[in-house]
Write a structure and sequence with these properties.
The chain has 140 residues and is an alpha/beta fold. It has 6 helices and 4 strands.
């Protein structure tokens, strides 16, 4: 599967970030990522040692501790899978990677579904851009 995707070099990102993105896509494909509401979840980031991957997804939170584990967006889940400290990817972002993590022209990130996030991530890995506009129109 990962051979179907652009290389880290072609994407302009570090190999560990690309590998993490591929792993996160596998979690989406396997149906493991579950969209959760985050109204009660604080915005703060804490050290990775206090987080565990619990497959809770919401694009409105990079990575935040919950009663059951950690809710995270695509980027936060990559950091969890890679066991990287929160904010590690801040230094690795390209414009297109930033658009994947912070969708332009999407009002309420918390309403982005796992299916939409999965398609945007697949787009990024295959064509180098997330194409959120098209995803939000076509995928529910």
């Amino acid at each position: 599967m990962s051979n179907d995707f652009l290389s880290a070099e072609a994407l302009g990102i570090q190999p560990w970030v690309r590998d993490g993105l591929v792993e996160v896509l596998k979690l989406f494909d396997a149906g493991k990522m579950i969209h959760v509401h985050v109204d009660h979840v604080p915005l703060n980031r804490v050290k990775i040692a206090t987080h565990k991957l619990s497959y809770e997804f919401n694009m409105a939170r990079w990575m935040a501790k919950t009663e059951c584990g950690t809710v995270a967006c695509i980027g936060g889940t990559v950091e969890l899978v890679a066991r990287a400290q929160p904010g590690t990817m801040d230094d690795t972002e390209t414009e297109e990677l930033e658009n994947l993590f912070y969708p332009p022209r999407v009002g309420d990130y918390s309403k982005i579904t796992t299916h939409q996030a999965k398609q945007a991530l697949r787009n990024y890995l295959t064509i180098g851009r997330s194409d959120w506009d098209s995803v939000m129109e076509r995928v529910s």
